[in-house]
Amino acid sequence: MGSRKKDDRLTPKEMEEYMALVQELDELKAQQGEKAPEGRVSLAISGFFDRRETREKQVLNKKKYILLAIFTGWFGGHRFYARQWLTAVLYLLFFWCGFPAAMTIVDLMIVIPMKPNENGNILL
């Protein structure tokens, strides 16, 4: 590939060769057990989902949760009841913009079809 001017671009063939080399390098790194470094954004996103998956489920009364969602959902009352502190505080901070009200509707669409146990409790 020799020296290039600053404004020269790779031809499609050169781009294919480059991508093949990058893929080969990634495969060799994977064989050696070397992980590719993650960026800050992807670390934050994966951390969020890791915490979400490992979060302990709460036993909640379905009727109480639904009533709290209907009457206090726009500022996160049902989230405080479910001990989901981070989203509850976010609902409280952004109650003025309508986003928490829309998310409360989503929360209700998730909870209403859930089958409660004999005591009327659900696992959320």
Please provide a written account of the structure.
The chain is mainly α. It has a domain at 57-123. It contains 6 helices and 2 strands; from the N terminus they run ααβααααβ. The protein has helices at residues 12-31, 40-54, 62-72, 77-81, 85-93, 99-111, and strands spanning 59-61, 121-123. Strands 1-2 form a two-stranded antiparallel ribbon. The longest helix has 20 residues, at 12-31. It is elongated and about 65 Å long. The N and C termini lie far apart (58 Å).
* Major sheet: arrangement of strands: 1-2
Share of residues in strands:
under 5%
Q: How many H/I helical runs?
A: 6
Helix content: 55-70%
End-to-end C-alpha gap: 58 Å
Shape: elongated
Instruction: Count every beta strand, where a strand is a DSSP E run of 2 or more residues.
Output: 2
Q: Multimeric state of these chains?
A: single chain
Question: Structural class of the secondary structure composition?
Answer: mainly alpha
Major sheet: 2 strands, antiparallel
- The low-confidence runs, each spanning 5 or more residues with pLDDT under 50, are none
Keywords, please?
single chain, 124 residues, mainly alpha, two-stranded antiparallel sheet, 6 helices, 2 strands, 59% helix
